[in-house]
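Attaching the record inline, Q. Sequence:
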Amino acid sequence: MSDETSNENAPIDGEGADAPSPRSGDAGVGPPSGVVIQTLAQYVKDLSFENPNGATIAREEHEAPDVEMNITVATENIAEDSYEVALIMHAEAVTEGRSLFMVELTYCGLFKLINVPAERVDLILKVHCPTLLFPFARHIVADATRHGGYPPLLINSIDFGAIYQQAATTPGDVEEAPEETEDTKDT
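Structure, as predicted:
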């Protein structure tokens, strides 16, 4: 866990704990008026790396693999104003009809939302929280593939806001962010 994000208050939309109170005479009295996301914890909930043809493929030269990447965001209310947000990542690399590797990661964050209007909770949990978690999950996946004997799988940045907007305009809940890349080699 990084010191940058643990137990850090993250103001949203320019509002913070020091934002002025709507009642001008009560500055500093009562709870803060700004919206705050407090990161309580970040952790690997599940990690799996499969290398079914490792011994065979390591001896051969092969083309850059086709990689299919899927990312899902799941949320769970675990206590009043506290939520677990999970990034569920699944990547599979295939070349010449053979599986090179498959990596699956569920990376979670525990967040406390302070002074968040009910209509904004879903937005914060599905956009802001995954955006905070993503760089850490990306690093874990890159390390897992590198330790598996392959170049690190470098996942492109994901615009969780665009995915959220698409889900809002599309019937049904669309929470998956498919990403396909042809070349995962870090050259």
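The helical segments are 54-58, 118-147, 160-169. The radius of gyration is 20 Å.

More tomorrow.
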